[in-house]
Design a protein that fits this description.
Blueprint: H1 11-22, H2 25-37, H3 42-69, H4 76-83, H5 86-119, H6 128-147, H7 149-181, H8 183-189, H9 197-212
Helix pairs in contact: 1-7, 2-9, 3-9, 4-5, 5-6, 6-7
């Protein structure tokens, strides 16, 4: 039986997966957390996003180097085994399977369900309806990826493009409107609450790490 890797996605799909995962739910609901940590200091908040991004680029480069040297099927587990040893790789595999991936997918399904409730005007965005929608998203996403990886790749490309269009429009329109009204200048020159810069920056960078995790 051939257990080697099989090519399922092309370059466009791979890029869409990376962009779609990084520019995901964490970017939206962690933005408030970053500004809360920095006391509303826009410059410090943006610096936290930049630092987090640089750290993630370094991590991504490390994974890319490992991936070119160890072309196996277990990804992170193989890299952990190659760098530290079989026991660490074994523990990493159990950690990812039993704790990390179940927790991460559950949180993402729950956040997506909350957004859906807000979109359709559901008042209780953390109640039973939200939990039902979250379960549906969990089952549907698993079924799509397990039964048809190619279709899942096309779905990823489509949703990434659809998501980026309003984000780009918001960035352009928001920048122009903010400069005209003076709101952009105000946000960069006023701090809501004075915070210790070192502690605030470190806490904000931790918050950005979740958003950048993909």
């Amino acid at each position: 039986m051939d257990n080697g890797m099989q090519k399922r996605y092309g370059l466009i799909t791979a890029m869409a997966m990376v962009v779609g995962i990084v520019v995901g739910s964490g970017v939206f609901f962690k933005a408030e957390k970053v500004l809360s940590c920095t006391g509303g200091d826009m410059k410090l908040g943006i610096l936290a996003w930049i630092i987090g991004g640089v750290i993630m680029i370094a991590c991504a480069y490390s994974f890319a180097v490992m991936a070119t040297k160890y072309e196996k099927v277990n990804g992170v587990v193989d890299y952990a085994e190659a760098t530290i040893g079989p026991k660490y790789g074994y523990m990493m595999g159990w950690f990812l399977t039993m704790i990390y991936y179940p927790t991460l997918t559950s949180v993402l399904a729950w956040v997506s369900a909350r957004y859906t409730c807000v979109l359709f005007g559901v008042e209780d965005i953390t109640g039973g309806i939200c939990m039902v929608i979250a379960c549906f998203y969990l089952v549907a996403s698993y079924a799509l990826n397990a039964l048809s990886p190619i279709l899942a790749g096309k779905f990823q490309v489509a949703t990434t493009i659809i998501k980026l269009i309003p984000l780009l429009l918001m960035a352009v329109v928001g920048t122009i409107f903010g400069l005209k009204t003076g709101m952009t200048t105000y946000n960069f020159t006023h701090v809501v609450t004075d915070m210790p810069s070192g502690t605030a920056l470190f806490t904000a960078v931790v918050a950005t790490s979740f958003a950048y995790e993909g």
